[in-house]
Amino acid sequence: MIKLHDFKANRLSLNWETILIGLEGPGKFPAQIMPKDVVAYAIDLILQDDNQSDNIWVLAGLNEIDKSEIKKLVQELANSEKIVREVELDKWKVMILGKVLNELSNEPIYDLIKLTEFWERFDFPADNPHVVQGVGNNISPEDYYTKENYDIIINRHKKWIERKLTQVRGI
């Protein structure tokens, strides 16, 4: 799972849309943040500045077992913002992909499959850096699963993360 403080560590802004996506589960991933994290975030906001909306005060007072009420309030807070959902989803892609890359085992077959599974969970967006063997190309399995091709694909993913970070930090 990704923690909310990981966004700040990567200099990515948080808003209620970002939190809603994490609570719902980005793409086809399960929820990446728990209701208790959302309540803790609301409490932190109040501790920083007690001039918060009523919804944030209510959210801060909820118990983590009040999942539906938490989600409803986060949805209302997200709806009140003028935020582009796709940008917030890109933040989640960057965060999760970074974690996937860090957990790879340097085994081309297994790691390329993991990357394919990652992008499938986001329905292979047009800007994804991944190459799937035999999809829109004539790369043979013997060529696809080589260390050389693996290194090229990993490098493409790292560059994609850098480019996306630059894009989403600027918004």
Characterize the structure shown.
- About 65% of the residues lie in helices and about 0% in strands.
- Helix 2 runs antiparallel to helix 5, helix 2 (about 15-25) crosses helix 6 (about 85-100) and helix 6 (about 85-100) packs antiparallel against helix 9.
- The protein is mainly α and about 170 residues long.
- It starts with a helix and ends with a helix.
- It contains nine helices and no strands.
Count the beta strands. Answer: 0
Subunit arrangement of the protein: single chain
Molecular shape: elongated
Helix-strand category: mainly alpha
Topology of helices and strands:
Blueprint: H1 4-9, H2 16-24, H3 35-48, H4 54-61, H5 67-79, H6 85-102, H7 108-120, H8 141-144, H9 147-169
Helix pairs in contact: 2-5, 2-6, 3-4, 4-5, 6-9
What's the short story on this structure?
The chain is mainly α and 171 residues long.
How would you describe this structure in keywords?
171 residues
